[in-house]
Specification:
With 170 residues, this protein is mainly alpha-helical. The chain is built from 7 helices and 2 strands. Helix 3 crosses helix 6 and helix 4 crosses helix 5. It is globular and about 55 Å long. The two termini are 18 Å apart.
């Protein structure tokens, strides 16, 4: 299906200006929100944005393995390992062997990590409520629904790309 769509787009010669690309706009908005978060809340704790994201995901879903953390943050393994190392070094998380599977490390917040997370989360919630204040409740529901559908499309796109690569390799 992905190949068919690509061929149809090329045949139609339709073009979208860069500023109308969903992926471009998401990237801009995410970068801008991240910059505000970093400047206002994250940098004072001497954390990188990937480390903050990792801390937040562990706070929400922990305990997690490094692989689970990578999947939930959509980060590459190198960035995940660097974030984990920083958070362990700073005493914000623990990395201990999982008793059920000694090959797997379990990542959990320390009390200091919980305190740091709670402090940064207050600022993040202030930002979130400010962003949502510019929308009606119906627009927020629509946005959430649209984001879910786009995320599903991205997953389908990834599967299509994977299927295309696998069929080319065969």
């Amino acid at each position: 299906m992905l190949k068919q769509l690509a061929l149809a787009v090329m045949a139609s010669k339709k073009k979208l200006p860069l500023e109308n690309w969903i992926s471009y706009r998401f990237g801009l908005v995410a970068s801008r929100v991240g910059a505000v978060m970093a400047a206002k809340y994250v940098e004072q704790h001497q954390l990188t944005m990937p480390a903050w994201r990792s801390l937040a995901v562990i706070a929400r879903y922990g305990p997690l393995s490094a692989g689970e953390l990578g999947a939930k943050t959509s980060s590459d393994p190198y960035r995940v390992v660097r974030s984990i190392d920083l958070l362990v070094k700073r005493g914000l998380i623990t990395r201990e062997a999982d008793p059920a599977d000694r090959r797997r490390a379990s990542l959990q917040l320390t009390p200091q990590g919980r305190s740091t997370y709670d402090e940064i989360e207050q600022g993040a919630m202030t930002n979130e409520f400010f962003l949502r204040a510019g929308l009606t409740s119906q627009e927020v529901r629509s946005l959430e629904s649209i984001l879910e559908r786009i995320d599903a499309q991205v997953a389908a796109l990834a599967q299509g790309v994977l299927a295309t690569r696998q069929s080319e390799d065969d």
